[in-house]
Every structure is written in C-alpha cells, then in structure tokens.
Predict the 3D structure of the following.
Amino acid sequence: MRLFVFLHCCVAGAATLEEAANDLARRVNSVLAPREVCFLRIRTLAQVPASDVAIAQRTLQPLLRTGPAAEGRPEVVVSLSQNQDTRLIVAEVRRGSGPPSVFLAPYAGEASAPAVLRLERTLLWQQAGRILDAAPAGGGLLVMDPDRIAWALVGRVEAAEPLVHASPLPRDARGHLRVEGTRFTADAANTRCTGEWQPALKFTCEPANADPAWPLVSGRNHFQPAKLPPVFSFTPWDRGFLAVTTADQTRWFSSEGGVLGRYTGWGTVVASLPHPCAQGRIAVAGTSAGAALQAFDPARPLSEPVSLNGVVAELWPSQDSLTAIVQQTGNHYAAYRITVACGR
Amino acid sequence: MSPFRTRLFLLFALAIAATSIVLSYVISLTAERAFERLDEQRTRTLIRQFQRELDQRGREVVRRIESIAGSEPVRRLAADAAQPGDLSLYLDQAQTLAKEQALDFLEILGPGGVIVSSAHYPARFGYKKPWVADPSQDWKSAGAFVEIEELPDESAVALLAVRAVPAGAGFVYLVGGLRVDKGFLEALALPAGMRAALYRDLPSIRGGSSLEPSAALVAEVRRTGKEVSLPVRPTFGEPSTLTGIPLSGRARELLGVLLVSSSREELYELTWFIRTVGFVGALAGIALGAVIAWWASARVTRPVRELAAGAREVAAGNWKARVEVDSRDEIGDLARAFNRMTEQLAEQRGRLIQVERVAAWRELARRLAHELKNPLFPLQITVENLQRARKLDAAQFDEVFQESTATLLAELSQLKSILGRFSDFARMPAPRFEPVNIESLLATLVRLFEPQWQSPGSPPIRSVVEVETPSLSVEADPDQLNRALRNLVLNAMDAMPSGGTITLRARGIVAGVMLEVSDTGTGLTPEECERLFTPYYTTKTHGTGLGLAIVQSVVSDHGGRISVESEPGRGSSFRIELPERSAKGELNGASSDR
Amino acid sequence: MRLIALLSLAAVSLAARPRYGGALTVELRGTVQALDPTAADSVDAQRLPLLLFDRLVALDGTPSLAVSWVAEDNQRRWRFRIRPGVRLHDGVALTPQLAAAALQPALPGYTVTADAAGVVIQSPRPAPRLPQELSSPRASVAVRLPNGTLQGSGPFRAMEWQPGKALTVAAFDGYWGGRPYLDSITMLLGRPLRDQLADFESGRASVAEVTPAEFRRQEMRGRRTWSSAAVDLVALVFLRNRPAAQDARVRQAMSLAIDRAPVWSVLFQKQGEPTGSLLPGWLTGWGFVFPARHDPAKAKEVGAGGPALLLGHDPADFVLKTVAERIVLNARESGLSVRMAAGAESDVLLVRVPASSTEPGRVLADYCRTFNTPAPASPTPEALYEAEHRLLEGQWILPLFHLPALYAIQPQVRNWTPGGQLHWRLDEVWLEGAP
C-alpha cells in the first residue's frame, strides 16, 4: 500500500522565478565593478523544465552587462536546481581560479505540482500461449510468439512464419518488435530477424549480436546495458536509465551506473513515454503486485493504477505508446496498447 | 759448567727449541689453511643449501598459487571476467584466499593487468601491473622470482609466483608469494652457526673504507653482481664469514643482498687451540730440549772435559795423567790419541831430558874444554918457556921464572875461578823463600855497582830505578835473586861498552811481580834472543856464558819466567816475572794453560 | 485511516496475506544510551522512538497522532487536531495537554500549548516546515511520568531496555492504528558490521546493516535489501591543533589529490555519490557549487615541500580503512607526504558522519555543533548555504562521499516499508512462516 503526499512547493510568500532572478541579479551586480561586463551562462540541473531557463534568461539578460567570454572577464554561471522542497536559482560569479562568489534564491516552480494523468488501455490481441511482443503495423498487428511471427488483421492471423532460433530459447524468453514503415526487426533471445510485413510477411533470422539497443544476456531473461547491473526492464531516462534490476529494485541509474534514485512499489516492468502535457517524460511501471500499470514522476505517481486483468509480463515502447503483454489466467496472454492522457 | 758444554747445551737447546717452534708454527699454519679451506667448503655447502631452501620455498609458493588458481572462487572470478561488467565485488577475495593459503602477498589481476583485489594492499585496486599481463610472458610454467612489493607503509622483498587463468579472450592473473624477511629467513632450515639477513636499503650504500664490513660487502656485491665472501672479525661479537648473495628480480635487477654469515668461531677456536697446543708443545719441547741438551751436553762433553782435565794435568806437569774414555767414537779416539800422545810426550820428554842432559853434559864438556883450554895454553907456553929458560943464565932464568910462575899462578887462579863458577852453578841450592822488598833490593844492587859505573876510566853508566810502590815485595830467595839481577846488570854493562843507561824497573803484575833490567846497549837480534838462554851461548867475547843460565835457573826455581826484548842498536830489556807465593812458598794463583 | 486500511487490504489481496506473530531481530551499528527522543541525534538512535512513540505527523507527511492541521498567522501558528481514542501503553488516554507537555522539550524554539481539540504550536517566525519537523523521530510524543520514565503511544511497548546494548519491544495490542503483525522486535545496538553480517548469514538477525560490497552481493543473490537516502557524509577533517594540518597549501593539495571515482565505484559499489559539499546536492540544490575536483598535477604543484601528514580513521570501520589507504596512495602520487597514523596521533581524520535527518537545516546545525561554528541563522536557503560555505571555508573539512545506509533483509521479512528517507515502518512488517 502506498499513499503519496504531494508536497506543496507553492508556499505562501515564496518568490516566483522572475522575482528570484531579479534578486539574484542585484546581488551579482554588487560584486561586479560598475559597468563591468560579464559572460553569462545559464544551465539547468535536475528535472527543471526548459521553460524555467527561458524565464531566467529573459530576466537576467537585461539586468547584467553581458558579453562573450573573454580573457579577464568574469563568468557568471546561473544554475537552475532543485531540492526536495523548492527550486533554486544559483549564481556563481567566477573570476580566474579563485573561489567564486555564490548567490542563491529559492523560487516556486509552476510545474512543480505534478499534473494528474490518465492511463488508457486498448486491447490489441489475445491468444492462448505466450506473446513476446505485439506491434501495430499498418492497420494490422505484428505478433511475435516464441516460435513464430504472425501478421494479424482484424483479429485474425493473415500470415505467419516460424521463428528459427540459433540456439534453444531460454525459459522466460524475452522478445521485442520494432516496426519502421513496412520493415520490422524482431529480437528474440539470441536471434535477430529482419524482414517486412508488406507486401507479404517475409523475414530472415540470424544469431543476435551484442546490440546496445537489445543488450540481452545470452541465455537469460535479463538485460545488461553498459555499466548497469543486470536488469529485467529498462528505459532511457534523464541522464541515464530507469530500470528494474534482477533483484526487483527499481532504480534511476546514471549512464555511468551510479544510482540517482530509488523507488519501491514497482513491478518488474518499466517504460517511459513523453509527458502528454508538459516537458519531459513520464515513467509507466507495473505496481508491485504487477497487476496494474501506473504513471510515475518517477518519485510520485502521476495517475491512478489501471488494471489489466493479469500480471504485466512485458511493457515495450511502441512508437508513441506502449505495448503491455499481460499474462491472464491459465496460459492466456493479451497484448494491450497503453497511452497516457492529461487530466483525470 | 764448561764453556764448551754451555755452547753445546745452548746449541742443542736452541736446535730443539727451534725445531719445536718451527714445527708447531708449520702445523698451526697448515691447520689454519686446512680450516680455511674447510670453512670455505662449508660456506659453499651452506650457500648451496640456502639456495636450495630458497628454491624449495619458491616451488612451495608456486604450488600454493596454482592451488588458488584452481580454486572455485577464482574460477568464478575468471568466468565473470569474461563477461562485461565489473569485478569490484571481488575486492576482498584476495585476502580470503591469501589467508587460506598462508601467503603474505596475493593480488588478483584482471585482463590487462589491472588489480582487482590485493590482499596486502587493498587500496591498490584499479592500479595496473603491466609486466604481469605482458603477452610475451608465459606464466604457465614460470617459477618463483624475487620482486619488490609495495605495502601501505613500506616496500618489502617478496618471493612471488604468477599464474594466469583463462578468462574469455584474456586472462586473470594471480600474483602472490611470501615475504622474504627475517621470519622467512629464520624459517629456513639452516645449520647451526649460520644466520641469514636481508639487506634492502641499496641506494644508500656507497663504497668506502670507513663502512662496516656488511655495508662494504653489499657495495661489492652491488658492483660485481656476484657472490662475495669476506671474513669478519668485529671488535664485539664473534668472528664469521660473511657472504653476500645478490637477490635479483625478474629483470635481473638487484633488489637486495642476502647476507649469510657462518660462524668462524669454531675455526678460530680450533686455530687458537692448535696454536696453544703448538705453543705449549714448543715450550715443552724447549724444556725437554733443555733437559736433553743438558744431559747430552754433559754426556758429550764429559770425555772432552776429561780430556781437558788430562791436558791440564799434563800441562801442570803430571806427565802420567790419563784420560779414561771408553767410547768408540771420535772422542774415544781422541782420548786414546791423547793418552798415546802424553805417553809419547812423556817418553820424548824423558828422551829429551836425556838428550838435553847429554847435550848439557856435552856442552859443559865443550865449555869446560873451551874454558880450560884457554888458561891451559898459556900454562903450556909458560912451562915451555921455563924449560927453555933453564938454558938461560940464572938472572934471565930468574926473570923468566918469575914471569912464568906469575903467569902460571894467574892462569891457575883463572882456572880456579872457572872451576869455581862451574861449581857454583852446579851447587846452586833450592831457594829459600822470604819476603824481599824490591826497592831495597834494587837499591843495594845499585850501590854495589855505582862505584864501578862512576869510576873514571870506565864507560859512564847512568842508572834509573823505578819501583812502583815502595812496599812492593815478593817472596823469593834474596841471595839468588840478587845474583840473578847482578848477572843481568853485568850483562847490561857488557852490552854498553861506551856507556849508557841501565834502567831497573819493578812493578806488580797480576799474581806477581815484574823486574826489568834494561840497557841502551848494542841490542840483540831476534836469533840471538832465541838462543840466549842456552847455556854457553854468549855474545860476549869473554865470559863463561853461564850468567844468563844462572839467571834462568834462579828464575826457574822461583817459578817465574824471563823474557827479553831487544832491538839491535837500541838496547835490550830483560824481564823477570816472579809469581806470588803464599807464606809457605807455594805458588798462588790459577794456573793458566799456556 | 480505516479507509486506508481497507484499501491496503484490497491492494494486498493479490499478493500473500500477512501473518500475525513472530519476532524480528534488527542489528544496528550505532549505540543509544537513552530512549529519550529529544536526545536521538543519530539515525540509529531515532529508530527506537519510532517503535515506542507516535508523532503528530507520520514520516511520510501523512497524519498520525494529529488527524489534521492548519497554519495560521502566516504560518506562525499551527493548530493540530489530536486523534481521539489514543491510549498510552499504560492505558492512560492521550490528551492534548499531555501531548503538548510531551512535545514542548522537542520544540525549543516554539511554544506548545493545548486547547480543547489538540495542540497549538506558536513560533516567533513563520515556520512553513513545521509539519516536516514534527514528523521527525525527535519530535515524538513521549509523555514523561512523575517517576521520570517515558510513556508512549506507539505500536510497540518497551519490554527490556539495556542502554547501549539492546531494546526489546512487544506489540501494543491497543494501538490506534491496529496491533502490529509482529509480536516482538529486538534491536541490538552497537554491533560492528562484521558481526552483523555473521548474524545475518546465520539467521540470527532479520535485518542487518551491510557494507556496499555485501549489499551488492545480496542484491545479486536476489535477496531483499534496502538503502536509505545518501546523507551520511564521509569526509577528511583536518585537526586545527596540529601544526602539519595548519598549512593551507597542504589542505588544498589534499583536496586536489584525491580521486573519488574509483573509490566510489569499487569500494562503495556506486552507492551514494562522490561529493564536494557537506550536504548532498539533491537535499540542498546547491551541492554543485562545491566541486570535487581531482587534479593531481595541480596538487603536486601546490603541495610541493609541504609537511608530512598522519591520516587516522576509526579502526573499527574496515571499509574506511581501505578508503584511507587509497587516499594515502593518491596523496603520494601527487608528491604529498602522507602516512597512516598508527596510534592516537593524527593530523587529519577520515570520518563517517551519519546524518540524523533529511532536513538540511537540522543536518547543518548538527555539523555546526560538531565543528564548533555558529549555527545557521535561519532555515532559508541563503542562510543554510552561508553556513555550509563557512564550514567548508579554508578546506578544514574535505567532503568526499555521501553514502546511504545499506541493509540486508531476510526473505521471510515481508512488507518492508520505508518511512521517510532514513527509516522503516516496522509496524507494517510481518514475518513469513511465523507461528
């Protein structure tokens, strides 16, 4: 059971970004000589929306005498940062190699309160037997099983070709389809098949190579992207990845493998989507029981959980949506399309 | 002890002593050399044993590393190393494995020689040891080697082995071993009296004579790169042979010097013991030699002494002296020869005496005949004159008778005096000894002759009397001595027909008194000196020639001797030496074998 | 709360059902000498009050003893409605008066009074973060009895207390939030990590603090693990009374010589992060202003000819020992003369300062007290930054890493629920296979 509290950053009396930037400019000018020109650089750290950068730039530029970088010219580095409670705008005035003068001002971000979203599901396919992945192709659906790839239209298999694996398929095999136009690539365990679904379903398979996009550990059901520990599921995220490790830990890893965040209550699948009504992305993950999907910030939920009548076995990105493969009762599997919308 | 015996004794003693000393010295030297060789051999053996121990330890290290290489954790590590991913979880692995195998050093290196885990320097993960991963190195069968290992607080000398475990396309390397330190060296099975130490601080060693032996040795090893041995004799501590063995690393660079010392204490003790024994032996030899020499010299010189004693006796006049020597050697021959000689001498003397007696008789007869002939001839003439004169008248006959009888009487008187002298000479009694004051004797003598010397018409003769001390006296027969001196003075006067100086001297000599009568006369030739004391030898144209004989007789009876020094034209000096006599008149003083 | 409970029941119906009963053993590195919450200045010390006492606000900010609260007068006055029907362990009802009296010692800058409905807390300045402060274990409602003992209303009651050694608690049947699943919990204090691991491996401990390597091993074995927020600071502290440490160039050279990345990657298994700031950047938002530069060439240049330093560390912490050795290696490579201190004499110490809170103000106040500098004037970011800047001025303190506390949890421990970023909800835990 989890209940998340939305910590309000909009406390009465807190400054807006413009106010904070104004205050900062005044303090920066106090350490610059009159009419001294400085080189201004603005950057964001953490998950501060790009819109804040624009506001900061707009506010600071006229208040400081700025110019290009030059020898002997002081550099003013403005960073937009945040902590648990508030956003911060930090200015470092650097002259040469001496210690910089640092000024900071908190401000309340407008987008700090996470928007509420809605996950929507659409049933794509159902069958008895394992589905590795399913991807919309044209008006139809490409469905990948452990031993075949089929092209279905209006709920009926129109064409199917067997999947020949280079070596025996491991237990709990993983597979993923990527469709581009009429061509597709299917990665399954240790085999890669490329082909087309139009005009006819045709593909050739060969033993898979190590591919950063499909870093499946040979003979296993988990991945090992570079510098990361073994993971069941991973998705690109800010400066790194969101991943669920083989120890059922959900982590936000930096691209160097450092842990930037930890989350609990997620299942074994995670994927990300662009935020439908704001900058950045959102994470979609199974709940701890695996029976539902939920959108996350990732620290806090952005939507209500949506149940899928089964345990979510896979969550694959598919163009602008996600495909969820769900294991329902018995050996029945279903493929859902998952999208996210703004609002409740 | 007789000088000869002393010489002999010294000779024997010296010979034996010298022999002992030389012998013991030679023995000591030989023993020392032999011990040195033995010690060297022993050191060699010990060094070889040491090397064997070291090699044994090296093999032990290799065995342990191989055991680790085949262990489960390492195989797991190698399997993980073949996969992508880091090996950071194995950070503690080396420590565990090292403890299991009782190794002082153990490092596990991943592909490329990057340290994954280090038992002795855990913080060195991530550092590289490129020489381990050198592809030209074959670690499969490589043995142990010496290397400097870095530790947090120091660096140590280590005996290491390396093994490579296949890990995918590369290898995982195990580098481990034991520390070569005091404990390691002590754990080696070294024989008693042998110690080993490791010298590490090489850069600070410079050559120089002011260093201690071990530092100088290390410098030498460093210079030559070979084993160097030198004996060490410290002021405090036991002497030893110090050997420096270079410890070379993989690339043959000198990492340290093993100093192995084997005690020379035993050697020195033995040498000292032998020297002492030699010394004692030499002393004993000398002592024994002295005893033997003493006895031998006594034995050897006894016959010589007897011979000498015999000779002395013979010299003293005992012609019957014999030497009792029974040996068959040269000494015996000598003794027998001596005895024969003395017999012969005695015989010869007897014969000589006989001959001399005969000669003396003959001489006397001649002299007598000569002396008598002179007066007899005028007698005969005179008697013949008388006979002829009978024919003359009475007056002429009376004259001739008077002359002739006068002449006859004179010649007869002459004959009487001649006979008287002979009779005196024959009748000279044994002297009667009494103390005679020389000064008064000489004064009397001078007074006697003075009128004659100063009478006009006779050659002028001066006299000088020199007496050493007024109290100078001698035990003598005053009459005989007087007579002897008178004869000498008379001879002196005869030697100075034209005058001169007569010097009468008297002084004390060793064991006696010396009286000298010197003149400044014509002198005598050496031949004449020799023949002088023969009776009837005279250089005078007149005289019986008995004068000197009488002097000689008197001197001889006094036990003295007479000698003459003369030079033709310069004069003569007659010297009489009279020995001291005791109150009883016996001769004093030691006899001298002249 | 009933609604939540129902929801929680619904949520877990798909998973296994919790079982009542069983005893949990938790081993902690820190020692605690008293159960007084106001004296709980380390995370481990705060774990005990969490069992015995309630707070007005729960660790995650939800209502606890206070069902609701409202700020007045520009957040200078806060009114908390006390939950009715709450009983202390001895059965006495918790009244607002009792609660107010219990809270006052924990809130020295505030005035705590009671009214009919609950507790009123008055602050001279606006206190926007008062609810967060009241969720801290230090602000537990511990009613002091006349005999001096403390009585709480928490899910567990104290059964046996050996100061510095162990606390055994038993479930409080009359807990307003429902009796905990566990029958009892034993907290063992002052346990070195090696012993904790041994106990964990042998099954004697249900929860143990582990080293980063061990944490990763447990993770790889699929075992349950939990890590707190990375607030613990590992830093080099130069001792002001030591002549060698007084050389500013040496301190600067040391700060440039240390290569944090390999240590963080290997020794800490990429837990936490390397840092140059006293407080983690995610906590303050300005951590990047204090960079952690590694420039061995510059270090060599600056530190040339400097005095030799003796580096000391807590001998019981063997992970820090390796870190210290690595620092010595880094320093030597930059031409600095640094040695491990064998005995008591050190010029610079490698220390691990566990955080007691994720409130920057509180943490900085603790640091200021430890290092004898003035506390931050106000809880504003500028004041806090000033305080941190002052502490780091002169490079007497060189922050190296922020580390989380890492725990391994036995598989039979179910429903492991974190409370806040540093704590656990042991009242939610149940044991599988419990009789």
Observations:
- The longest helix of chain A spans residues 17-31.
